[in-house]
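Fold these two proteins, one after the other.
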Amino acid sequence: MLQPQEAQILAPVLNFFPTPKPPNKTLSFHRISALVITFFAYASFHASRKPSSIVKSVLGPSKSAQVSLEETGWAPFNGPDGTHRLGELDLAFLTSYALGMYFAGHVGDRIDLRLFLVFGMMGSGLLTVVFGFGYWFSVHLLVYYIAVQILCGLFQSIGWPCVVSVVGNWFGKEKRGLIMGLWNSHTSVGNIVGSVVAAAVLEFGWGWSFVLPGLLLIFVGVFVFLFLVVRPEDLGFEAPAKEVEMHEEKAENEEVGLLGVESSDSLEAIGFLQAWRLPGVAPFAFCLFFSKLVAYTFLYWLPFYLRHTGVAGKQLSHKTAGILSIIFDFGGVLGGILAGLISDLIEARAVTSVAFLLLSIPSLILYRAYGSLSMVSNIALMFLSGLLVNAPYSLITTAVAADLGTQDSIKGNSRALATVTAIIDGTGSVGAALGPLLAGYISTRGWNSVFLMLIGSILLAALLLICVAKIEIQQKLNEGKWVWNGMTSQ
């Protein structure tokens, strides 16, 4: 066992209470602790992002005659261009988030990850609360809400590189599979918790929908400050083999794929244009652009859509619409698991992605046409849509990024892996920022137009992978096995 690092870098609880330290607790105990703590940390980040989608139906204009004068929206979002401005709010957050991600990873490499993560959590939580204060202080300035969203996006960008770096420190390239699959569900769990909390208190004033998730993030930040141990070396344990490939295991959500651990090898970093020319990178990157565009449009606009379309001829309350929207996230969890499982069994990522993309087109048509007939049809079709829409998005940001970043031509070059992953996830994040903005503008022409945009995006995503899928099928045929029986030809 190594000697522990300086005591001041340890979490305060471990400094004052020696019981959790070795030899009282094993390496396995602390690995599980790191997984659990980072899981809740990133889930709380996502929970604090959900209020903006839940309160859209309250802030924006209403076209329903059943709405009272007290519920006609909140200036500056309740005018004829209200949905445009709500879309601009999403754009402000997602753009600053994507840009901040590039810098956050490099900063996290150079300072204490625990303190940097806590800094991001505290800043994000505080700014989420500040956004909610606009309700009690009757703030009706668009620049106020835009500025808060920009700053909040920058603080939120700190979360992902930090939690992935911590998990990478503890596990290296080990322990993939089920454990990491469960850990990757933090995005959906956070979305669900944020939706439920924000919707539950919406009737007391939309400000509470921001304040409570913000306070939750701050509370979890305190927990992280007290308990998180960044590296096994800090407790005297041997460090696992540090391989940046750990960073490819991200599911979600989310976001630009910037890795928080720098390479220790001596290979020269691959050029940006050279990385684009690697087989499969460009098709999957642009496919993720359109796939993430669709997924994030639902993430930010589904509660608003449910509120304004109604179910079984009845208009849903803001609270009911917000809670009902989590069904889409539940479907996404199952979709991500199924896509990963199927692609492993048939050994064909592009074929799996194309299949889910094409199946999602009729599911969206059915949801738009029949989702409002009854609550049962709405829930069933929403779950199916979430499963099919999120499956390829989840697969590309995890297994596909790992495959492309470790192909033979660049194998062992962790800097090349970082560049490839950044290209794929970064391109997807541009789509994630564009989708909600377009939905805000197009929705003024009717929801059929929005669904046409989503279906068109999915079709383009599938077409971008057709050639790659054909290559995979041909390879299977050349190997003497069909795509669907790859599971039996090990």
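Now the second one:
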Amino acid sequence: MRPRSLCLLVVTLCAVSLAGCSEVDPGEQAGDIALWLDQAPSAVQDDGDELVVLAAVADRGEGAGGSAISATFEEPVTIRRVELECFGDGSVEGLFGLTSATGAVDTTSARESCAEGVLELDIPESSRKGVTNVSFSSVASTENGAWRVIVR
């Protein structure tokens, strides 16, 4: 599966899961979130196509069992940059993980205020080569909204 196809698959699966995700005015908020998820990701510095985009709805106050999405690459890739952005009035907190072809696992924590725009995650240079899997687990959200992780 090509990276672009994988990206579209992940975003489509997330958009399908939007029904009933909000307690306050669910129809309007779900529509706004679906529209945001369908838009192209923002870019801090666009240096080419993304390898994969992970995205999901974030429910207010979700705990450690919150939304988690992962993607596996057919061949090991080199990660240039990882960006986190979110939709809504609050913030989202989570863990970005990557696995290398050698089985090494690296986890980076991230907290993003949706009003501040795109956050570039600080991924160690030594962990960027030979990546076979990436994941993001949302562990907390201050409001209902959505998050998106762009792996370039």
